[in-house]
Design a protein that fits this description.
By secondary structure, this protein is of the alpha/beta class. It has 9 helices and 11 strands. It has a single domain (2-237), classed as ComB-like (putative 2-phosphosulfolactate phosphatase, Alpha-Beta Complex). It has helices at 31-40, 52-57, 103-111, 126-136, 153-169, 177-189, 193-197, 201-208, 212-218, and strands spanning 2-7, 22-26, 45-48, 64-69, 72-73, 95-99, 117-121, 140-144, 172-173, 228-231, 234-237. Strand 10 and strand 11 (234-237) form a beta hairpin. Helix 4 (126-136) packs across helix 5 (153-169) and helix 5 (153-169) packs across helix 6. The protein is globular, with a radius of gyration of 16 Å. It binds D-malate (MLT). Residues 27, 29-31, 68, 71, 81, 100-103, 145, 206 line the site of D-malate.
Length: 238
């Protein structure tokens, strides 16, 4: 039986153990959606980093560099954090060093702490992720990146969606209130996610920055089969 835990903010991660657990890091708008898109479009790997200075250092090793803060691309980097920047062939065959406001910080936080595996979760590969986790049978922790330690709607919705998909595939133990809440919210909102999310803080932030197209794309369900997880410290095709 798979035990499913949902952590709604990195600030709550210390209350859980990730040892021998399949951790899915969730930053739907947009880091983990962009990571999955880059790898689906041929990137060899995505190295998730916390600091801009460390990210830039990887250029000397032939990595494309990508940076976002507060939803905006940072000057001096090859890419920002839009999934659309990964679709024109530029990332094919390349490794990417990426730093974002919340998502990459979360990945770094769980990368070396005894997890069974660490995955990048997105609606884009929802069913493929659920199939992998159901077959692997390891306990699952769904870690929402949120916004600067606050809970956000989009990551909570995805946690509910993945918990729901897992529960439909195999025996799951779901005693965690955060998991039960996220599943209920997803059931309520799934009929029209984009309309539901228009009231969310990050939707408003990204709309102000004219990133509506990114958000419509990041909410598409199961458009590719690629599962992305950490191998040798970098997100790769799993
Ligand atoms: C994040 O790390 O919070 C997001 O990726 C920010 C964004 O891309 O808008």
């Amino acid at each position: 039986m798979i035990n499913i835990e949902v952590v709604l903010s990195p600030a709550l991660l210390h209350l859980n153990t990730i040892r021998d657990t399949n951790v899915v890091v969730i930053d739907i708008l947009r880091a983990t959606s962009t990571i999955c898109t880059a790898i689906h479009h041929g990137a060899n790997s995505v190295k998730a980093l916390m600091s801009q200075s460390e990210t830039l250092e990887w250029a000397e090793k032939g990595y494309l560099t990508a940076a976002e803060r507060n939803g905006q691309k940072i000057e001096g980097f090859d890419l920002g954090n839009s999934p659309f920047e990964c679709m024109d062939g530029k990332v094919n065959g390349r490794s990417i060093a990426l730093t974002t406001t919340n998502g990459t910080k979360c990945i770094e936080a769980v990368a070396n702490d005894g997890a069974r595996n660490v995955f990048s979760g997105s609606f884009l590969n929802l069913e493929a992720m659920a199939n992998f986790l159901a077959n692997d049978k390891g306990d699952v922790l769904l870690l929402c990146a949120g916004w600067k330690d606050s809970v956000n709607l989009e990551d909570t919705l995805f946690a509910g969606a993945l918990a729901h998909e897992l529960n439909n595939r195999t025996d799951c133990k779901i005693d965690c209130d955060a998991a039960l809440m996220s599943m209920d919210i997803y059931q309520m909102a799934k009929v029209d996610l984009i309309s539901y999310l228009k009231k969310s803080s990050h939707y408003k932030r990204l709309s102000h920055l004219h990133h509506e197209e990114d958000m419509v794309y990041c909410l598409k369900h199961s458009i590719f089969e690629t599962v992305c997880g950490l191998k040798d410290g970098e997100m790769k095709k799993f």
